[in-house]
Design goal:
heterotrimer; A mainly alpha (about 450); B mainly alpha (about 375); C mainly alpha (about 550); A: about 450 residues; B: mainly alpha; four-stranded mixed sheet
Chain lengths: ~450, ~375, ~550
């Protein structure tokens, strides 16, 4: 497209607004290309030159400009163009919302939406998806409710977005409700929606329901299989995950990286080291899939769990990319299980670089020292934490009751039913003691890992 | 032929408020009616009566209170029937405080007022207050009637006041010359039965000066069922059916035979079984539950220090689980989501909890799922 | 006992106020408005602190559904599930009411599942479910059944001290009966006095009747008579209208040789114009008094009258016990076929014999060498699904020995263990004794060894039987071994007779000094064992101390680190 355009210019043909808009959207689409932005700016310049009113009353062109700037990360410029536009339609606004959301400027996005007179389902979708991208799941649900109050007809894109929210929040009640709603809108055979349902149910811990959806799908695609396998695997149903993997192969689907993530996760959960390594090998040799971070993660976890800490460490150092926090933490946790302080120290080197202010790693390290009885080292870790002013991240847990999510912090007394909760804990506490439970934390005075 | 000069039929009157309200009242739209009235619509006494009668459920309490506020501003605020209805309905809504206020403000009361108040207390588990009302009634020298004693007995049953039950029952005839009817005997049996004196109630029946009618056996059968004595329940049912065969319940499951010997064998002293049998071993349940030796330690002493300390360990996941437990039916799974890794101690604790509470506890932490069930976790203790 | 209702009310209110009861923990009102925050106290609330139990009106809606569901489980005899459901419901939004808990406790009691009952009771107490008088009565009954009367009394005192309500007449009946069954007449009498002074319930003929049978059991008919007089007096002086006491009253007269008074009493309370009320139990008592004291013909007449009056369900004049009394009566007269005949007639009156009744008849038949008939009954039990118990087997074993069928006797004994019954030392002694009598000493010793193997503690009789047998045939070495075992066994004491017997046997052999040697040996071994135990204890203590110090050191290090 670029070269055609160049020759057009050379030929002295002045581009009309449609050509420019097309070009701008090309720039926007390839925003990761370093050439896109300069080109986009030069096109903007062209717009000024060739279009009457500098193109400010051309909706399509303006929108394309906003989109281009937003996608290339110059959100403020995008906004200036946006504000300058004399005529805007809903597409323009939606583009702006989308742009803000991409930059994490949620409040601006919302204010754009609030100012819109003719917001449509695309606007809401952009907003909700943006909230998801920015991990504002509760807000996403809130906007979904608001959207419904405006009588906007549900489409499957939004349904999928909301299901993703439910998956993230673990809001099963809401998810079930969404499932019903989708069925009423007759998305029954929408494969993407069904896949989202599988994912949502698995992530809410209800593999049984996920499996029900899976079996009800008439034409499964690879994503369906993958979602189901991963669902089984993360919920600890390793056997089922592996079985479904072989069923998938038999049905004639080619596995991809995600399929193998599921298989390797299953193996690491069940401690099936040999099968896991075999699949890892098959993945590379037979299917030519280059291992990604998560594959390394699973294999390292698998090795570490079986006690092959050095092998795990070796693989970690050989990885073509820098290990992420998840991998390092899982290895660190394995160090605690196997009481390997030396390796833990080496890992901390990586971890501090990646996540200098993460308290849990320090706590884990000090726990490792504590199990080994190295009390001076425990003291040192504490000293470092104090010196670096590392704050303990507060732990919270949530439980969903009748579609309402109730969150608790440690020692929380803010809940209206606090009394009942603590009474119940007292009863449970005395009963648990009879069943042979003794709290470790009391006995050892160790820092608690999680809170 | 109609006279030409006849006046035209009167034009339809605009709907007047009372008519409107009566209609709402008939349709059971109490809320709407109350709203109209707060905005100035007037109700006549029958409508008022109807509206008050409609508030029969605790969820109507707020309407009932509003109605009463409106009522005391009406010219007929002294209406005995409506006031009594207020007492009755406040009792039904579970607010004896309001019922009492109505009673106290009434310019004149009849027997019904007293009865309704005592009965209200009795049915709201405040029998003792009911008995105090009866004391007050006696102090102001109101002559009780047969109905009075019925409500007094129900108050005694609610307060588990057995002695008073008998005293009042006996005073019926002795002091007031009222001969007790079957319903009074039933009332007294309920005083005994509701207080857990089941055997005593049966003995009372056996000593009755007349052949007990079906209603007495039926009362006793219900009491036995509620108090959980299936043997007595079956016996009472047998007696009931022998009098009234229509009462037979076809779905009844026969009681399994009892193992414990009753003291009716007349072989006391001949039962040498104990002489030749080892004392029963108490088999440890598969879980490590403390073996229960028959002693009163747990009743006599406070639970020990360690148990308290552990109870103080209030991690967020435990709070979430505890809240989940008290908010959902037994045996339904609970799902907890935690933003950090679950700690070893909690992991261990939740495993045990899952067994004790008989539920699946699904915990999603920031790394993986833990399905806790029957004291085990799907992660196999590695996470 | 109160002059006016006001007085009674005042007393009741005082009692509740004194205990400053907490309201019951109820799931009916999930969030009672409480302005003040729950203070995180170092001391958890005492689950045993007195609470007001819920009233029956709490049994509604969901909680009533749960109650009915559990009652169905009880009827289906699935007590494990019923217990589990109660436990699981504590951890839910629908807590079981105390009434539901009582139903399960009651069901466990009627199946003799004492340990499970107490475990559930402990659980609900801990869970803050306030007991009712029925709960208390069930627990007291278990303690009494398990012969733990001291624990029962302690529990009773706890009710008096802490409970918001009074014990019921049933409470006293259970306790007094339990004490009498365990031969604790004095304590039972004290309890009765306590009942009268506290005036929670009127003087109760059933309580008095238990006391009277206790007095008769300790051969004190005079006390029984005076108890009757006391009851009569407390009830206002007229005729005692409850028939429960008359059987024991007659027995007391008979025991004192006052036959005339006994029969006068009989004719009066069972005469045409008598207003005394008799039920099956009361009748049985009289029936027994007659039959055991030479008035079997009159007993037969009474039995006929009882059968004629019997009109279930309304009128129950005969029960299993009546037949047992008659069986006993016939047997005492040696009329065994009539005994068996009357036993078989039970079914006509909708009575079915239990193991106890069978044992009773088997005992009588066995003792009179009617082993064939006894075995026939034993087989019949199996066919009718009535499980023979340890006592049944002991009776059959005894009767087989009695007619010289030694192998069959041992066979029955082994059968008892095969079916999972658990004979104790007394049962073993029957076999050892039987074998010794026929001179099978080695088999006898094998039985003894088998008993030790099965962790049944031998009692002094077990040792005596063997020692005597070995001494009799002059097997000195074996006798010495038994004596040594006796001395080493901490649960028994060597009796003077045994010692003398051993010394005499040794003397016959001219080995008097061996006794001294034996004592020395035993002393030495005991000392060694003691030393070993001491040593182990010291080692364990040292280990514990070490552990403690290690923890202390760690704590110190941790404190420093922190």
């Amino acid at each position: 497209a670029m070269s055609t355009f160049s020759s057009m210019l050379v030929a002295g043909v002045l581009p009309n607004s449609i050509t420019l808009a097309t070009l701008l959207s090309a720039c926007a689409d390839y925003s990761s290309n370093p050439l896109s932005l300069p080109l986009g700016i030069s096109i903007h310049a062209l717009v000024f030159k060739c279009c009457p009113d500098h193109g400010l009353d051309d909706v399509v062109l303006g929108t394309a400009l906003v989109d281009m700037y937003a996608k290339c990360g110059l959100i403020n410029v995008a906004r200036r163009v946006f504000d300058g536009m004399t005529v805007k339609n809903s597409v323009t606004c939606n583009t702006m919302i989308d742009g803000y959301m991409k930059c994490g400027e949620v409040n601006h996005a919302i204010s754009v939406l609030r100012q819109m007179s003719n917001r449509d389902k695309v606007s809401w979708t952009a907003l909700i998806n943006g909230c998801i991208r920015n991990k504002l799941f509760e807000d996403a649900l809130e906007y979904f409710r608001e959207m419904q109050a405006e009588d906007i007809v549900l489409d499957y894109v939004i349904a999928i977005a909301v299901l993703a929210v439910c998956a993230n929040l673990g809001a099963l009640g809401q998810g079930l409700w969404m499932h019903c709603l989708s069925m009423r809108h007759d998305f029954r055979d929408n494969i993407r929606l069904n896949n989202s349902l599988i994912d949502m149910y698995s992530r809410c811990g209800r593999v049984d329901l996920a499996f029900q959806v899976f079996t009800s799908i008439r034409e499964r695609n690879r994503v369906s299989w993958n979602s189901m396998i991963v669902g089984f695997a993360t919920n600890g149903y390793s056997r089922e995950a592996l079985d479904h993997f072989s069923m998938m192969l038999k049905t004639g689907f080619e596995p991809d990286g995600v399929s193998f993530t599921g298989v390797l996760t299953a193996c690491s959960h069940a401690g099936l080291i040999e099968i896991g390594l075999k699949h890892y090998d098959v993945m590379q040799r037979v299917y030519g899939i280059v291992p990604r971070m998560e594959h390394y993660g699973c294999v390292i976890d698998l090795l570490a769990r079986a006690g092959y800490l050095e092998d795990a460490m070796h693989l970690l150092e050989r990885m073509p990319m820098k290990p992420n926090v998840v991998i390092l933490t899982s290895l660190l946790a394995a160090c605690r299980t196997h009481g390997d302080a030396g390796l833990a120290e080496r890992l901390m080197g990586y971890l501090v670089e990646l996540e200098p202010d993460c308290d849990s790693n320090f706590v884990l390290l000090s726990n490792i020292y504590a199990t080994l009885g190295k009390w001076t080292s425990v003291g040192e870790v504490r000293g470092i934490m104090k010196a670096w002013e590392i704050k303990r991240r507060p732990g919270f847990s949530a439980v969903e009751i009748d579609c309402g999510i109730h969150e608790f912090m440690s020692g929380d007394r803010s809940h209206p039913e606090s009394d009942g909760i603590y009474d119940m804990l007292d009863i449970l506490g005395s009963e648990m003691k009879l069943y042979g439970y003794h709290p470790q934390a009391i006995m050892s005075g160790l820092p608690l890992e999680c809170e | 032929m109609a006279p030409v000069n006849a006046p035209p039929p009167p034009p339809p009157q605009p709907m007047e408020a009372p008519v409107d309200l009566a209609a709402l009242c008939r349709e059971g739209k109490i809320k709407e009616a109350v709203e109209f009235m707060s905005q100035g619509a007037r109700a006549d006494p029958p409508t008022f009566f109807g509206l008050v009668s409609g508030c029969s459920d605790p969820k109507h309490l707020d309407h009932l209170k509003k109605l009463h506020d409106l009522f005391i501003r009406t010219p007929f605020r002294a209406d005995l029937q409506i006031n009594n209805k207020f007492i009755e309905m406040f009792s039904r809504c579970g607010s004896m405080q309001d019922a009492r206020r109505v009673f106290d403000r009434m310019p004149d009361r009849n027997m019904d007022s007293w009865h309704l108040l005592i009965h209200g207390y009795a049915s709201n588990s405040q029998g003792d207050d009911g008995l105090q009302v009866f004391e007050q009634m006696r102090r102001v020298a109101i002559q009780p009637d047969a109905q009075t004693f019925l409500v007094v007995l129900s108050a005694c049953a609610s307060a588990e006041a057995i002695e008073e039950g008998f005293i009042h029952f006996n005073s019926m005839y002795k002091e007031y010359g009222i001969s007790p009817g079957i319903e009074h005997y039933v009332g007294l049996i309920e005083v005994l039965g509701k207080s857990g004196h089941l055997h005593e109630a049966v003995e009372f029946i056996e000593k009755l000066p007349f052949e007990p009618p079906a209603v007495i056996w039926e009362t006793m059968m219900t009491l036995a069922r509620l108090q959980g004595d299936i043997d007595l329940e079956d016996r009472m049912e047998e007696l009931l059916v022998s009098i009234d065969p229509s009462k037979v319940s076809p779905k009844k499951i026969p009681t399994p035979p009892r193992k414990r010997r009753l003291g009716i064998n007349m072989l006391d002293g001949k039962n040498k079984l104990g002489e030749y049998r080892l004392p029963p071993v108490i088999v440890r349940p598969q879980v490590k539950e403390q073996v229960y030796v028959p002693d009163t330690r747990y009743v006599l002493h406070d639970i020990d220090q360690e148990a308290k300390e552990q109870a103080l360990l209030y991690h967020s996941e435990r709070l979430a689980i505890a809240y989940g437990l008290i908010s959902t039916p037994a045996r339904t799974p609970l799902r907890i989501i935690k933003n950090l890794r679950v700690c070893g101690d909690c992991h261990n604790a939740i495993k045990i909890m899952s067994r004790i509470v008989g539920r699946e506890l699904i915990v999603r932490d920031n790394k993986r799922f833990h399905h806790f069930k029957d004291g085990k976790c799907s992660c196999g203790d590695y996470w | 006992s109160f002059a006016s209702p006001e007085e009674a009310a005042a007393e009741r209110r005082r009692r509740k106020r004194r205990l400053r009861m907490e309201p019951p923990l109820s799931s009916l009102r999930p969030s009672p408005p409480k302005p003040q925050q729950r203070i995180p106290s170092k001391t958890a609330p005492n689950p045993n602190a007195p609470k007001l139990p819920e009233t029956l009106s709490a049994l509604s809606a969901k909680r009533l559904d749960l109650h009915n569901r559990i009652l169905t489980l009880i009827r289906e005899n699935d007590l494990d599930e019923a217990t589990l459901l109660v436990r699981h419901s504590i951890y839910s939004n629908c807590r079981p009411t105390v009434f539901t808990c009582n139903a399960v406790l009651h069901a466990l009691l009627r199946q003799n599942r004492h340990a499970d009952l107490l475990s559930l009771h402990r659980f609900i107490t801990q869970a803050g479910i306030a007991p009712t008088v029925i709960t208390h009565n069930l627990v007291l009954q278990v303690y009494c059944d398990a012969r733990k009367t001291d624990t029962a009394l302690e529990h009773y005192r706890l009710i008096l001290k802490d409970s918001p309500f009074n014990p019921s007449p049933t409470t006293y009946r259970i306790l007094v009966k339990g004490l009498i069954d365990n031969n604790k007449l004095d304590q039972a009498l004290d309890l009765k006095d306590d009942m009268l002074t506290k005036a929670f319930c009127p003087p109760d003929p059933i309580v008095y009747n238990s006391l009277m049978s206790g007095a008769l059991k300790s051969s004190d008919p005079h006390k029984a008579l005076s108890l009757f007089e006391e009851l009569k007096d407390k009830l206002g002086g007229g005729t005692v209208l409850d028939g429960a006491v008359y059987g024991n009253l007659m027995k007391a007269y008979f025991n004192k040789g006052m036959e005339k008074e006994a029969m006068e009493c009989y004719n009066e309370v069972l005469g045409v114009d008598s207003k005394v009320l008799f039920n099956a139990v009361s009748y049985n008592s009289v029936l027994e008094a007659l039959s055991k004291n030479g008035n079997f013909d009159e007993a037969l007449r009474l039995f006929d009258r009882m059968n004629a009056e019997h009109d279930p369900p309304r009128r129950l004049a005969v029960n299993l016990g009546s037949f047992n009394v008659m069986v006993d009566g016939y047997c005492a007269l040696g009329k065994f076929s009539e005994a068996i005949e009357v036993f078989r007639k039970m079914g006509e009156k909708k009575c079915s014999p239990d193991a106890l009744s069978y044992n009773n008849l088997i005992d009588q038949l066995g003792r009179n060498q009617l082993v064939g008939e006894a075995e026939e009954l034993y087989r019949e039990m199996g066919e009718r699904g009535i499980n023979p118990d340890e006592y049944t087997y002991v009776l059959i074993v005894e009767s087989c020995f009695g007619v010289g069928r030694v192998d069959d006797a041992v066979g029955y004994f082994n059968k008892m263990m095969e079916v999972g019954l658990r004979p104790n030392a007394n049962a073993y002694n029957k076999v050892i004794g039987g074998l010794v009598n026929v001179g099978k000493l080695d088999e006898a010793r094998e039985s003894f060894e088998q008993m030790v193997e099965k962790e049944v503690k031998p009692n002094i009789t077990s040792y005596e039987l063997l020692l005597k047998a070995f001494c009799d045939v002059g097997r000195v070495a074996d006798a010495l071994k038994i004596t040594k075992d006796t001395l080493m066994d901490e649960n028994v004491v060597l009796s003077t007779e045994m010692k003398e017997l051993m010394e005499e046997t040794l003397k016959k052999e001219g080995r008097e000094e061996d006794m001294g040697k034996l004592y020395e040996e035993v002393e030495k071994e005991k000392a060694e064992a003691l030393a070993r135990a001491e040593e182990e204890k010291a080692r364990a203590e040292a280990l514990a101390k070490e552990e403690e110090e290690r923890i202390k050191a760690e704590d110190a290090a941790k404190a420093e680190a922190a």
